[in-house]
């Protein structure tokens, strides 16, 4: 393998991840013609086209898809090795990409952004908010946060928060005007602030824990949103009953203005975990973020 093969393969994988040559060039901080030439040389070397190209998009061929699948893990290992050596004995620096749902950002990261920047001014955090599950290698992500520790092979999970409940709350004004349900059978007579997942575009049903089982309840929804802050705002203003994780509710300065509803039926969620590829914590910049998040959430475990 000649010394240009690694660079060409890196360009190929970045194009596959980013979906275009120009986007890959921006990410790699090289000129678009250079990225295009690297791909051309790689295809000439292999002897088959790796992408189908049109004026509007670029898609992997069968050969390109196979090459990507067979080299992703190896390239990730090489990237990590280079990063470890580059950071050896130097100030911690570089970009760390992290993905999580918006509510997890509010729980874990938002209160500590300024402190992290002060402690590690040379680390650039790139935060991606996503309700779905991300494939760290394919998406070029270093760290992810999600409920539960069921992971793919080669991943590591570290607990950030103990399990939490999805609480039901009403505002004082809503409770005064409409009362609050006393049993789950009373719920359909009330209004619910709806929540739509960004990634799947599906509306999350209201689920309660009853007789050891989770049960979905149909309710009228005067408002549907895809942001936890909007959901809380609508609840504050008395539009209906809203949902919030108990950890998140504890962070609200006006939490005493929210009336808990049917607390014995609240749904239980598993602990919140930080997950990443095995050995990626050896990279100083990634290890710094891991240790910082574990430090800031220690009081909740």
UniProtKB/TrEMBL annotation:
Keyword field: DNA-binding, Transcription, Transcription regulation
Gene3D superfamilies from the UniProt entry: 3.40.190.290, Winged helix-like DNA-binding domain superfamily/Winged helix DNA-binding domain
A single MF term (Gene Ontology): DNA-binding transcription factor activity
KW Transcription regulation (keyword) present: yes
The keyword Transcription appears for this protein: yes
Domain HTH lysR-type: 1-61
InterPro entries: LysR-type_TF_proteobact-type, LysR_HTH_N, LysR_subst-bd, WH-like_DNA-bd_sf, WH_DNA-bd_sf
Family the entry assigns: Belongs to the LysR transcriptional regulatory family.
Protein name: LysR family transcriptional regulator
Organism per entry: Eikenella longinqua
């Amino acid at each position: 393998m000649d010394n240009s093969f690694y660079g060409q393969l890196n360009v190929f994988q970045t194009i596959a991840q980013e979906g275009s040559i120009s986007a890959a060039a921006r990410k790699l901080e090289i000129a678009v013609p250079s990225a295009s030439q690297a791909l051309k040389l790689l295809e000439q070397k292999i002897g088959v086209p790796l992408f189908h190209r049109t004026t509007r998009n670029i898609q992997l061929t069968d050969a390109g898809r196979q090459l990507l699948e067979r080299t992703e893990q190896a390239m990730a290992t090489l990237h990590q090795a280079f990063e470890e050596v580059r950071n050896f004995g130097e100030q911690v620096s570089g970009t760390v990409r992290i993905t999580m749902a918006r509510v997890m950002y509010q729980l874990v990261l938002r209160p500590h952004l300024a402190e992290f920047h002060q402690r590690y001014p040379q680390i650039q955090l790139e935060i991606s908010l996503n309700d779905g599950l991300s494939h760290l290698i394919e998406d070029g992500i270093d760290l992810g946060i999600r409920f539960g520790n069921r992971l793919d092979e080669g991943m590591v999970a570290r607990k950030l928060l103990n399990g939490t409940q999805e609480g039901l709350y009403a505002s004082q004004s809503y409770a005064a005007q409409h009362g609050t349900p006393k049993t789950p059978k009373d719920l359909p007579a009330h209004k619910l602030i709806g929540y739509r997942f960004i990634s799947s575009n599906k509306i999350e049903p209201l689920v309660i824990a009853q007789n050891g089982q989770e049960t979905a309840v149909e309710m009228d929804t005067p408002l549907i949103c895809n942001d936890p802050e909007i959901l809380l705002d609508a609840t504050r203003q008395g539009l209906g009953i809203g949902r919030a994780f108990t950890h998140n509710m504890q962070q609200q300065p006006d939490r005493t203005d929210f009336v808990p509803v049917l607390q014995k039926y609240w749904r239980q969620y598993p602990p919140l975990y930080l997950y990443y590829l095995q050995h990626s914590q050896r990279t100083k910049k990634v290890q710094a973020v891991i240790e910082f998040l574990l430090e800031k959430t220690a009081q909740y475990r």
